Amino acid sequence: MNKEIRYYFQLFRKVQILRFARELGSTKAIREFNVVGSTFYKWKRAYNKGGIEGLLRKRPIARSHPNMISSDVTDKILHMRSVYKLGSWRIKWYLERYHGIQVSESSVTRTLKRNGVNVLEKSTSKRALHSKRYSKTVPGHHVQVDVKFLSFMDSNGRHVRRFQYTAIDDATRIRALKIFSRHNQENAIIFIDYVVEKFPFRISTIRTDRGHEFQAKFHWHVEDLGMRHSYIKPRSPYLNGKVERSHLTDQREFYQLLSYKDDVDLNKKLQAWEKFYNLNRPHGAHQGMTPYEKLKAILK
């Protein structure tokens, strides 16, 4: 007897028992057919409510699930995505770090998908096929330096150009940031002095592209400070990939949320972002640790 035939046979038996009980009483039906009392009365309630359809086997649906994400957590996930444009891994780390909420990355992804939230746009730039990812293990061994070009609109609708100088340590991802109104060697020298003062370790090598701001004056200033200055190969920005990638993070998580006005103090806001990036922002390359937590782990 296959499963389907057995199922309908059992359904027919239930109906016969209930009809017998209607004529001769429930107690006699239970005794005659040797049915558990609680089971019989369950059948009876279902039959009285829905007839034979009430006796059909229904797929069980859990009223709640122990791992179900609450509406409060769902609201936090959607808020982080819509306001701060964070990916699923970063949302997971922020929930753990700042809200004490343990949730898996896959659960965050399912929550976003269930609420019709599209995936974040990926970078259109592609890493060269022959390039190889690497990471130094000694803080200060390599520090990548580059400039991010900024364009704002002032209150009169005129374009305002600014230049963000950025340094990032290869091993820890600790960064130093500063904005200048001019793009030249003098400001590059001022910036590198700021980097030396800011980084909590000795720097061995500064690595840049061959931009005009990193030419002779800058080169010899770096060498005079006891550091080595090396240039990456021409037309090979991927060799300074970490600083390039950090500029994408700046655009998504800082400048995208910034409203420029004539009286805005960009450097003051940027220093707050620099501090947050180094001390509080979970970093994907460190599996959710911040750059300074990574430094502490390396020093241990």
Walk me through this protein's architecture.
The protein has a five-stranded mixed beta sheet, with helices on both faces. The longest helix has 22 residues, at 3-24. The chain contains twelve helices and five strands. The chain is α/β, with parallel strands linked by helices and 300 residues long. Helix 5 (71-84) crosses helix 6, helix 6 (88-99) crosses helix 7 and helix 8 (185-198) runs parallel beside helix 9 (216-224). The N and C termini lie far apart (69 Å).
What's the short version?
It contains 12 helices and 5 strands. The protein has 300 residues and is of the alpha/beta class.
What's the end-to-end separation, in Å? 69 Å
Helix content: 40-55%
Q: What overall geometry do the principal axes of the alpha carbons give?
A: elongated
- How do the SSEs run, as a string of H and E? HHHHHHHEEEHEHEHHH
Neighbour order of strands in the largest sheet: 3-2-1-4-5
Number of strands: 5
> What low-confidence regions span 5 or more consecutive residues with pLDDT below 50?
123-131
Q: Characterize the biggest β-sheet.
A: 5 strands, mixed
Return the average pLDDT rounded to an integer: 85
* Number of helical elements: 12
Question: What is the radius of gyration?
Answer: 33 Å
Beta-strand level of the residues, as a percent range?
Answer: 5-15%
Entry keywords:
5 strands, 12 helices, 300 residues, alpha/beta, 5-stranded mixed β-sheet
SSE order and pairing:
Blueprint: H1 3-24, H2 26-33, H3 37-50, H4 52-55, H5 71-84, H6 88-99, H7 105-114, E1 143-153, E2 159-169, E3 175-180, H8 185-198, E4 205-208, H9 216-224, E5 228-231, H10 241-253, H11 266-279, H12 291-299
Parallel strand pairs: 1-4, 4-5
Antiparallel strand pairs: 1-2, 2-3
